[in-house]
């Protein structure tokens, strides 16, 4: 039975001003994850020296963050289906703040790695709940468009994070970077508390407890197309995270850039990621999300293999590697909004759980893949091989499991809730 409060809560579709405000708020929440991953990248070589460890072990702190993001989403997604979107969001962001402050005083690499897991769990709240809110409000092409806009905001994080981290290192140590992350989380807490309304009224919440959550996950795993799309998104993300994991060692260690130069080079690649996400809504006027996804992953696999060739032969040096990565990032930017848009359109009744599984697989695969760059040598060939491998495997799964040409067209629809206060 729908209550009066539920009817009020779901009475109007967001207008243009509310959509813009929603994009900024949700994009900022999603950005907490990439900032947590990327902001300390320029300091990885310094951390290696200061904590008397190896580059491969330091990269495991990145793996820990990705693992935390994966585990956190699996837990927080179902909780948001049961208790609403806001309470798990606030709790997760608060956990991130505490973990960031503890990272700033970590005495050794083991403690830092463990705390990075907690950081990831906290950041997972913004990632999974933002996707769930989008699915509460939109489906189909509107959802893909909203996700593209969100990735514009989220895409600013990889542009800003290493550059900001490099600039912070002019005045502070790597520990100060974690203090800055805690400060950003503190800013987000009142923004989420005051700036977002609840998009999942009590009448639409799941009340079956742990057993119901397990049944929901079981139902998702029985949807072959959904699982295929989740793996496609995860492998595409692994290509991006392979670049994130190895870039500081490749550009600083192999090509001799300093921390600030690395931040600028790394950030330039994110511009191509952002450009693709903002062209995506234009392409959606003429093509279905599934069609754009197939084209983007196919092109990404081709350019990934080209990047391996450039890195192996040394053609054009750092210019060749950077240019090849720009092409790969552009294709990835087209794939990332459309894979979840198609996947989530199939399971609106369990949007939080579906978004959790999607995010968990993305970051879980990333957690497995990111150390591989270090194991292969932390050079341009290793990074290019991991990037290309992720995209080639993504294409294989897309063609053999998802078979997007067999999927029906998605009709645009929008749910009625208003998320921005």
TrEMBL record:
Coiled-coil region(s): none
Bilayer disposition of the protein: Multi-pass membrane protein
Span of domain Major facilitator superfamily (MFS) profile: 20-407
InterPro entries from the UniProt entry: Efflux_drug-R_Bcr/CmlA, MFS, MFS_dom, MFS_trans_sf, Sugar_transporter_CS
Alphabetical GO biological process terms: xenobiotic detoxification by transmembrane export across the plasma membrane
SUPFAM superfamilies: MFS general substrate transporter (SSF103473)
TM region positions: 20-37, 57-77, 89-111, 117-134, 146-165, 177-196, 225-244, 264-284, 291-311, 317-339, 351-374, 380-402
GO MF term (any one): xenobiotic transmembrane transporter activity
Main location as per UniProt: membrane
Pfam families to which the protein is assigned, alphabetical: MFS_1
Subcellular location(s) of the protein: Cell membrane
Gene Ontology CC entries for this record: plasma membrane
Sorted UniProt keywords: Cell membrane, Membrane, Transmembrane, Transmembrane helix, Transport
NCBIfam families registered for this protein in UniProt: efflux_Bcr_CflA
Family from the record: Belongs to the major facilitator superfamily. Bcr/CmlA family.
Protein name: Multidrug effflux MFS transporter
Organism of provenance: Pseudonocardia broussonetiae
Species classification: Bacteria, Bacillati, Actinomycetota, Actinomycetes, Pseudonocardiales
């Amino acid at each position: 039975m729908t209550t009066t409060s539920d009817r009020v809560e779901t009475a109007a579709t967001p207008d243009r001003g509310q959509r813009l405000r929603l994009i900024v708020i949700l994009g900022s929440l999603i950005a907490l994850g990439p900032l947590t991953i990327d902001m300390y990248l320029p300091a990885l070589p310094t951390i290696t020296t200061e904590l008397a460890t190896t580059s491969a072990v330091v990269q495991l702190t990145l793996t820990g963050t990705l693992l935390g993001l994966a585990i956190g989403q699996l837990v927080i997604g179902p909780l948001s289906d049961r208790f609403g979107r806001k309470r798990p969001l606030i709790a997760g962001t608060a956990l991130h703040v505490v973990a960031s402050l503890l990272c700033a005083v970590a005495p050794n690499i083991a403690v830092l790695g463990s705390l990075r897991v907690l950081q990831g769990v906290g950041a997972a709240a913004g990632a999974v709940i933002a996707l769930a809110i989008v699915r509460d409000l939109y489906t189909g092409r509107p959802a893909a468009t909203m996700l593209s806009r969100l990735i514009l905001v989220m895409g600013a994080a990889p542009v800003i994070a290493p550059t900001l981290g490099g600039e912070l290192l002019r005045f502070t140590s790597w520990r100060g970077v974690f203090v800055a992350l805690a400060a950003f989380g503190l800013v987000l807490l009142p923004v989420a508390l005051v700036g977002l309304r609840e998009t999942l009224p009590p009448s639409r919440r799941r009340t079956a407890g742990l057993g119901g959550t397990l049944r929901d996950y079981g139902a998702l795993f029985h949807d072959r197309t959904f699982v295929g799309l989740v793996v496609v998104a995860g492998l595409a993300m692994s290509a991006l995270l392979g670049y994130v994991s190895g870039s500081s060692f490749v550009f600083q260690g192999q090509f001799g850039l300093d921390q600030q130069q690395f931040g600028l080079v790394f950030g330039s690649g994110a511009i191509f990621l952002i450009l693709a996400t903002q062209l995506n809504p234009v392409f959606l006027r003429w093509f279905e999300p599934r069609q754009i996804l197939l084209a983007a992953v196919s092109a990404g696999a081709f350019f990934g293999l080209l990047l391996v060739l450039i890195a192996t032969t040394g053609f054009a040096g750092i210019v060749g590697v950077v240019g090849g990565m720009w092409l790969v990032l552009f294709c990835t930017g087209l794939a990332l909004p459309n894979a979840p848009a198609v996947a989530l359109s199939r399971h609106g009744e369990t949007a939080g759980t579906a978004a959790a599984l999607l995010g968990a697989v993305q970051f879980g695969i990333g957690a497995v893949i990111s150390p591989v760059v270090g194991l292969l040598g932390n050079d341009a060939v290793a990074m290019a091989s991991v990037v290309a491998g992720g995209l080639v495997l993504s294409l294989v799964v897309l063609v053999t499991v998802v078979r997007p040409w067999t999927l029906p067209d998605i009709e645009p629809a929008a749910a009625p809730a208003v998320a921005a206060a």
